[in-house]
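seq as requested:
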Amino acid sequence: MSTKGSRDYRPLLHFTPPSMWINDPNGMVYVDGTYHLFYQHYPKEAHWGPMHWGHAVSKDLLHWKHLPIALYPDEMGYIYSGSCVYDRKNVSGYGTEENPPLVALYTNHATDGLERQCLAYSTDGVHFEKTIHNPVIPNPGLRDFRDPKAFYNPVKDCWSLVLAAGDRVHFYSSEDLKHWEKTGEFGPEGNHSPGIWECPDLFRVKTEDGDSLWVLVVSMLMPTENGRSRTQYFLGDFDGDRFTVTEKSEEPMWLDFGFDNYAGVTFQNTEEPVLIGWASNWEYANETPTGEYCGQMTLGRKLHAGKTEKGLRLISGFAGTDVLTAEMEPVGEQKELKSETFALRLKGTKKLVFANGNGEQLTVEVTEDEILVNRSSAGEKGFQESFGTERYSRLRVPRLRKDGELVMIFDVSVAEILADDGAVPITLTFYPTQPYDRLVTEGSGEVWISSAP
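struct tokens:
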């Protein structure tokens, strides 16, 4: 269970629940200028429990309004992860042409472990009604069968979804969002990392040379000996029924190289892919010292594909954060920090040390060949036995674009780093017992910083 830390660790920019527990983002959809974020939520305790769907909305991905819980557990089980689509043409019949519905597809997880895909709908964007025809996709006899991500299929002009099925994903298609037919599978071939697949997503991205390709994202529950929970992606083609890899790699392609980014999926109905993940880690998420709340989301990330020293890779850019990076001032060898929330930009090679009066420090270093992060002395770590270990304290990530810049957004107890022009994303949490009040820099690179408004 979470225990109360020495101070308030709640970030200012990253989404957190009003109180209690959150994990995976769910049902993310963009409608008429509003981003809807649903999320796995246990409203009674600051640790994992019977899952609900929490709900919040935003106009800019930074300022969120909390709405009533959208979906509660029922006689079929807990409400696990899933997705929402904006049924603009009302093919489901749950709305009208003048008032199209939101249609949610989610996993019901029964107390005996049985997982089935179910449907709920809303005509006001707030209150959801579950269909009496649930489940809309029965379990085919699999232990792990969950997390449906629905999307518009431009190849067949219908709706499709991808869901996790053990060590692979299954694809389904539908004309009305209610009746689904299986069209194909992907995996485990092409996968370079063992583990149960979760929270899949399939979407199209543009490349820097003007082409486009499809991206399949799968979060990985990995064996302890292989490290932490991570999110892998594959680049390829979708023929309307199934996905195939076209950009082959001899190693996994990771969506984020840090300790604390999992279950990321994109918003449905945006012009370009915008992804949000859960900024935590199953190894220690239940025991973080954050008190009345537990867990936060990453910031939004815009995605495209670009060339790197290891071939074509996803390139991330922060979404909605222009207000933080518009005006930045240069940093010398030392800078007094007056805020716990700020943006930072680094060009060249440099070591950054964020420090406070309690002797705690977080270091980020860019060398010619690597990005190094060290949170071993960053703050509280005794709340859970794994958090302070070497495996969860230090990162060494090879660079992918050695002339690229680094952008970092620092937010009280969570930081997101987009290094090498976004080819190397790193997310991490930390719990300094008092705010970092100074930044010390070493090296020839240039650094700029700006405080949050």
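The mean pLDDT is 95.
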